[in-house]
Amino acid sequence: MGLEYDQVAGRRVAKRIRNLALRTEDVSKSWPKVGAYLGRQVRRQFSTRGKHFGTPWKPLAKATRKQKSKLGFGRIPLVRKGTLRESFIGRPMDIEKYSPQQAVFGSSLKTANWQQHGTRRHGKQHIPPRPILEVTALMQSDVKEIIKKYIVGKGKGSAGIS
């Protein structure tokens, strides 16, 4: 009787180890959860005007504020119609590419790069850097946790990091 139970338990353990190995080789099913998490982080970045990642965005130049006002837009940096913000917080993000061991997340809009890194014109800063997405140590830890939960099968990729 003990031998039969040991064989059944052994088969269960072997199956569990095979499943862990397969999930470790291909974590692509966890990437949508990672994308949703990153989208929430960017949403916070926009709502805090850059403070969420530690570097508040520089205020808009007077001429830009005037122009936005004349066109009927608000005074929030990086937001006119919301297209840039939505390219990061929409699901899926504008760019989401998955492979078994890596993923790429971001926006294909030129303005995203201009705002993230800033621009120069005639040797002078034209648009100051206003980082939209930065990978912090906490975010790295949270993403690792999402992937870990997927690998060990808790929620089948539905880890709830917020």
How large, in whole angstroms, is the Cα Rg? 22 Å
Total DSSP helices: 6
* Unreliable sequence segments: 156-162
The helix/strand series, from N terminus to C terminus, equals HHHHEEHEEH
Instruction: Please list the strands of the largest sheet in the order they lie side by side.
Output: 1-2
- Give the total of beta strands: 4
The main sheet comes to: 2 strands, antiparallel
- Strand fraction: 5-15%
Question: Please, could you describe this protein's structure?
Answer:
This protein is mainly alpha-helical and 162 residues long. The chain has one domain. The chain has helices spanning 2-25, 31-47, 62-70, 83-89, 110-117, 137-152; strands at 95-98, 103-106, 119-121, 124-127. Strands 1-2 form a two-stranded antiparallel ribbon.
Keywords:
two-stranded antiparallel sheet; mainly alpha; 162 residues; two-stranded antiparallel ribbon; 9% strand
Topology:
Elements: H1 2-25, H2 31-47, H3 62-70, H4 83-89, E1 95-98, E2 103-106, H5 110-117, E3 119-121, E4 124-127, H6 137-152
Antiparallel strand pairs: 1-2, 3-4
In summary, what is this structure?
This protein has helices spanning 2-25, 31-47, 62-70, 83-89, 110-117, 137-152; strands spanning 95-98, 103-106, 119-121, 124-127. With 162 residues, it is mainly alpha-helical.
